[in-house]
Sequence to fold (543 residues):
Amino acid sequence: MQIDLEQLIAGMPGLSPRSGAAMAEAAGVCFDEQDHPCPTELDLAMGGGNGTARVSWREPSEQVKRSWADEPFATEQGAYAVAIGLAREARGLVALERSRRFNGFDYWLGEDEQTLFADKVRLEVSGIRHGTDAQIKARVKQKVEQVAVSDGELKGLVIVVEFGKPRAEVVER
Amino acid sequence: MNDPVSLHREAMALADEAQHELHWGQATKARELFGRAFERELAAIEQMHDAPVLEQAVLIRSAAALGVEAQRFGAAERMIARGLLLDGAPNKILDEMRDLLEQVHFHRHLDLRGLVLDDTDVQMSIAGQAIGFGFANADEFVTRVNDFERILYRAAERRAGRPYREGGSPKKKLKESFEVYLSVPRAASFAVTLRLGRPKEQLEWSEIVGEPGVIAEALDLLEIAQARDMELLQKRIPEESYRRNFVALAKRMAPDGKNVAMVGFTTRRNGQERRVSLIHTRADLESLRLPEPSVAEVKAVEVRGFLKFADDTRAGDGRIKLVEASGKTHQIVVPEGMMTDIVRPLWDDEVVVRGELRGSEIRLDEIDSV
Fold:
């Protein structure tokens, strides 16, 4: 599987080219800061199986690195880039709609643009710049529990991205 | 196009622009764009009465978030109230609305409500589980007042060009100028006015009370810490000891996310009101750290015990010992900037120390009372 983060610059129905480009930039900063060559292999845990995806990004300039100096924010935005790319490549889902939450957007994935949110999958993303297996498991558990609050009411796709190894874990609810 | 879907998408495009402006530090422009996005989202909602409840709930939550970001708190509050009445809305969306309502309430706590503040007054508000209406857990509150006072002293000393003071108390005249006095608390969740002592005569410190002023500087720095902008912090506080001291105090003042959810300040200077909210928790501020000298083998460690035996006699780094309940002791190196304001107030307490194991010693990174 190939995830070319530069493709996000073209945007999606629910992802503006500007947001897509910003997320892709953030992801580039995170991979670069962890000294990964481009492209790099991303370890995947998905649906009980394991695999890899080859991820590529544009090498960040010094200016880009400085503009993403807020590490938690860059990590979160970079994780969104990887997650949206992964959802498209692994599940054929694209960001069709978004809604505002405090300090960010929720992305709603799907294939059909007839309704706004009703038949869509809400993307739940979490990013870790450099973490252990235990930290990733804990973050996945936390996210899945958050989604479980609304079990049966909202469909959710939980994706946790860790840039150190790098790896991603995907859970569907 | 005035159909609800188009209006919602217009709202999101405006929010996208606002987010971009925010990223580049254009807060005023961002607020104006969030306001326009809020209007579009409201217009979309007005046409969604017959839509499935999930559609209505998500749009209302989205509008409320935009209202908060546009600082239109009253309108956001009304929107949330409407959303909470939706029958059959997903619990997760309802929970997110309640979180937004906390934001709205906190901004109400920052309101001065007719109170007149002098240039040397600061209203400090805290909210969270440990804070009731007009009551606050004493530890949570007093620690933060003391830390704010320490930040003021350090800012004043730094602005006066004084070298970092690792031991002892601030000069008497400085204390007179910046000592904090508390008003009677107000129920707001819990708010007090902090009044700084005024120089009774022309003091050597009076020049540094002037514009932009030590209070304004302290609030600037707390905002920079909340933005987690270490590069800007380095520009504003070039001296490493002062910077390390400030970072540790800013982390301790931040909400813990459990007992205290928000800490806020309101000031008035030259007729202009300023509000600063500390929303990011200590854990969120984890990335704010100073680069430490690299050594061959470093391992992150966390130890718990009682804080004993301090040696602050050597220039530069100090040393303390931590005694575990089992009697095992740890030698802790305390970098310059941490001993007086961060470590000393915890003397004899049970604490958790996080740091790096370097040889047989631990170099202190963070310390918290248990």
In short: The helical segments of chain A are 17-33, 62-67, 71-91, 133-148. The interface with chain B takes residues 14, 16, 18-19, 22, 66-67, 69-73, 97-106, 115-118, 146-147, 149-150, 153-154 of chain A (CB under 8 Å). Chain A has a mean pLDDT of 89. Chain A has four helices and eight strands.
